[in-house]
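>> received
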Amino acid sequence: MNEKTEELKNIFTDVTDGEETVTESQEDTRGSLERDEQTDEERIASVIEQMRERYAFETPLSDEQLRDVATGFYDGDSDEEIASRFGVEPAEIFEARMSLHLIAEDDADEIDLTAIRGREEDDATLAEEYGVSEGRIRRYRRVAAAEDESRRANDRYRDEFDSLLADAELTARMTTDVREDGLEDATEGMETEVEF
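>> returned
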């Protein structure tokens, strides 16, 4: 070993607290493709907890209710439908969705968010310019802010919700299709005689 190599090895050993290697031994794992032993509900709760810590958002909804908001969003429920289950205003569900980066396609379908992003005019000025109410402008600005926040996190949380909730719906649908196809195959060509 030459002097430079020895010097680099010493620096590496100092930085890694004396460890000679940074590789981990491989384990033989068989069977499941699951990433861990957590249930989907636990993983959703974990994502919500991480988001609460990172963004310190305030909501009167509990973590369990936030999980139901996320699930309802992926089930296609409206803010009004989710709000009626919890006995809260739809605006609280909308705010919870924005805090969770769960933005629906129709949340700002009447306006180009890029056009209002970063505009410094007050809500009344923009409302007049776009021919909508000040409440709609506040809503659009909130959607734009949630999109920006999600992008700064590389859509990490939205992607996690997608993988847990969108994939779960797809898996359930595929399982149902397989069962139905299997039943059709099993009963194909079967003759039944029914007398009434």
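>> The radius of gyration is 26 Å.
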